[in-house]
Design goal:
Elements lengths: L6 E7 L20 E6 L2 E5 L5 H10 L4 E6 L4 H4 L14 E6 L8 H8 L14 E6 L6 E2 L5 E6 L7 E7 L2 E6 L7 H11 L4 E5 L4 H4 L10 H11 L3 E5 L7 H14 L4 E2 L4 E4 L9 E2 L12
Parallel strand pairs: 3-4, 4-5, 5-6, 10-11, 11-12, 12-13
Antiparallel strand pairs: 1-2, 1-14, 2-3, 7-8, 8-9, 9-10, 14-15
The structure holds zinc ion (2 copies).
One zinc ion binds next to helix 2.
């Protein structure tokens, strides 16, 4: 059971771009972006990539009856699991979806309508039972009854994206994906946003060498993750949004490299749960998600 004062993050999908189930991604996982942040009893979902299907099934098995979903943005790899999030179809399950990256003339609900247009999907969002859509203002602080606060900050990404910071009883977790470094004003604001965080999940799609060919594509590198963590006093940078072609062996090798430069640095892995403020790297617990059926099978 979660301790009342704990703040943790669990990964249900760690890939960028597209899901890659298969023998080369068994250990780190092949699902796209989905995380669960829990502050005491208050749990939130961040992004609905293909990993959200398994999370939804786990929530139903645990008897949960509500969920708050925050979107970093609505590129396909962050919403493709949404039509397969079974809790949204139930009358006895309340879901609140929130996003803050969209231009003012587009509502989050419009994105759902597009994603589930009859030519793309057999049923339309009207079949979702107890669901609410909320467009939030970037930078506004959301306060929850148990003391959790959630704030957001603009990231540098094509079509817009926002980062989220969760603060709870002196602990903090920040999620920065999808983001490209190099915009001075955004980078400075981001450094303040992540300052002192216990855990910073960061878009590490590329290496510095690969990035030279992908300037302007909206993503960053593991080297930039470590640099930002050092500058901003982040305790544990966690590389995320792995390139779909990065195999388990590649990620193992990368983990060994980053650990020589930043003792607490970690690589996000499906099923991994990290607790903010834990004293040693080994304190991070890993468990297998309840359902391991490769996504992409439907
Ligand atoms: Zn993405
Ligand atoms: Zn994106």
């Amino acid at each position: 059971m979660t301790e009342p004062a704990s703040l943790s993050i669990r990964f249900w999908g760690v890939r960028g771009s597209y899901a890659v189930p298969g023998p080369a991604t068994v250990r780190y996982g092949g699902n796209t972006s989905c995380m669960e942040v829990c502050a005491g009893e208050e749990c939130m979902i961040v992004d609905c990539g293909s990993g959200v299907h398994n999370l939804g099934e786990a929530m139903l098995e645990e008897g949960k009856r509500s969920a708050t979903v925050l979107f970093t943005h609505t590129h396909l790899d962050h919403i493709c699991g949404l039509p397969f999030f079974r809790p949204a179809y139930r009358e006895d399950f309340r879901v609140r979806f929130m996003a803050g990256h969209l231009p003012t003339d587009i509502r989050l609900q419009d994105i759902f309508e597009r994603l589930m247009d009859p030519v793309l999907f057999p049923v339309q969002p009207a079949v979702f039972k107890d669901c609410a859509f909320q467009d939030i203002a970037v930078g506004e602080t959301m306060r929850f009854g148990n003391g959790l606060t959630v704030t957001s900050e603009c990231l540098n990404h094509t079509g817009g994206a926002i980062g989220y910071r969760f603060d709870f009883k002196g602990r903090s977790i920040v999620i920065v994906t999808d983001h490209e470094h190099g915009n001075k004003a955004i980078d400075e604001a981001l450094e303040r946003f992540v300052a002192g965080a216990d855990i910073m999940v960061y878009d590490a799609t590329y290496t510095d060498e690969e990035y030279r060919n992908y300037v302007g594509w909206g993503h960053s590198t593991w080297q930039e993750a470590l640099k930002l963590a050092e500058k901003a006093g982040v305790r544990q940078p966690v590389l995320f949004h792995h390139h779909p072609e990065r195999s388990d062996d590649d990620l193992d090798a990368l983990r060994a490299t980053i650990r020589t430069r930043f003792a607490m640095a970690e690589i996000a892995r499906e099923g991994m749960r990290l607790e903010a403020g834990k004293p040693t790297p080994e304190a991070a617990t890993t468990s297998t998600p309840r359902r391991e059926a490769p996504v992409g099978s439907r």
